[in-house]
Design brief:
elongated, about 80 residues, mainly alpha
Length: about 80
């Protein structure tokens, strides 16, 4: 199946315009919309902000980034 990936910005009233697609007029296409993923740099910066905010809470100053990751992994595993 031929796919085409691009990004767009949601306009007023929830409209999204995708122009220049490589399909012939009249071709029925499937459309899936999701928020754009962060770049590695953006994700790292966001992770560091979250960790810093958590460390600012009482009793959490000594937890490392790895400690936060372990807690998240345990939570996801249902432990």
């Amino acid at each position: 199946m031929k796919t085409y990936e691009t990004s767009a910005t949601v306009e007023e009233q929830g409209r999204v315009l995708v122009a220049g697609v490589p399909f012939a007029p009249g071709t029925e296409v499937a459309v899936t919309i999701s928020p754009k993923r962060l770049s590695a740099e953006e994700f790292t910066a966001a992770w560091r902000r979250v960790c810093a905010e958590l460390r600012g809470r009482p009793g959490l100053q000594s937890i490392t980034d790895e400690g936060f990751r372990e807690e998240i992994d345990h939570y996801r595993a249902g432990q």
